[in-house]
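During the reporting period the student researcher (J.K.) took over the structure-prediction task from the postdoctoral fellow and processed the backlog of single-chain submissions. One of the processed entries is reproduced below for the supervisory committee.
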Amino acid sequence: MLDTGHARVRLRDVAARAGVSTSTASRVLSGSPRVSPAARRAVLDASDRLGYRGDRIARALRTRRTGTVGMLVPDIANPFFAELIESVTRELEVVAIDLLLADSHGSVEAEARWLVGLSERRVDGLLVVPVHHHRSRAALERVAPGLPLVQLDREVDGLPADFVGVDNDRGCAEIVAHLRARGVERVAVVDGPESSSTGRQRALAFERAVAGSPSLTVAARQSGEFSTAFGREAARRILARAAPDAIVCGSDIIALGVMAELRRRHVAVPDEVLVTGFDGIMMAELTEPALTTVVQPCDAIAAEACRLLELRLGGDEGPARHSLVAPRLAVRGSTSGDRSVAAGAV
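J.K. obtained the following C-alpha cells:
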C-alpha cells in the first residue's frame, strides 16, 4: 500500500474547519443552492485549505450529476469571450461546479463535434455562444432535449432554449445620443458578420436609433468579421471616400483595428474622426486615446446564465426565457472632440 504520509481528509474535517454541520458541508460540495452565502464561502475555503477532493464518482452516482458544466465559445482569442469565460468560472466556483471549456474556432462543423463531445463527457448542462444564427440550430437541437442549455451573447433563430445577452437597442441608442451631443452629422458604420445574431442585431439597432435622429446620416457602411484585421480594412475603404465625422463599430476588436489604421494614416482621433466600440473589453481602456464603448456587464450576463441553468438542472420545464441585460456607455477619449464646436471655429 502506498503511504503518502498524510491522513485522508474527510468531509467531517471540512465541516469542522468551516464551523458548519456535515450535512451543510455536503450540500455545498454537491452544488446545492440551499445554503447561505457565508456557509458556502466557509466550506469552500476550508475545502481548499485542507485539500479535500471528495469522491466525485460516488457523488455523481448518487445525484446523477457530475458537477461539471460545458461551455462552448466561437473564439477564445477574442478578449470579450475570454472575459465572459472568467465571469462564468467565478459564478460556478461559488457552487463548486467545474467548467469544461471548448473553442469552435468559428466553425459550425467543429461546434457540432464539440457539442457531441461535451454531452458524452456527461456534463450537467451547457453554456453556448453559437457560431451561426441559423446553421448552428441542427446541432444544438440534437443535444438540447437531453441536456439543459443556455445561449449567451448570441442566439439561434427559433431555437427553444434560454438566452442571456445584452440589450443592443439600448446600447446603440446611447451611442447615437452621445454622438448627437458631440455635434456629429455624418457617421460610418462598421458591423460584425451577419452570420452572428449580435452582428445583425446591432446593425438593425443602430439603424433604428439613427432613424429617430434626423440630424444624423449614415455616410458609409462596412460589414465583416469581429477582428482587428477587418477593422483596418474597413477604415481603408471608408477613408477612400470622404472621411465621416464618426466611425461606429460593432465591437471593440473592430474599433481597435479602425483606430490602428487611422493612426497609420495620421488621421487624428478624436480631433478629425470620433470612434466608438461595443463590448467593453479591458483593452479598450488601454489604447490611446481610450475607446468610448458600450460595456457589456460580463458578471451580470454570467450570473443570469448560471441562474437559468440552475433552474433547468432543478427540473424547471417552463418555456424558454429571453433575458436582456442593460449595458452602459463608457465615454472616453476617442469621442472627446466636439464636432459642433470645431465646425463653428472654422
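The committee noted the following: The chain has a mean pLDDT of 89.
J.K. will present the remaining backlog at the next meeting.
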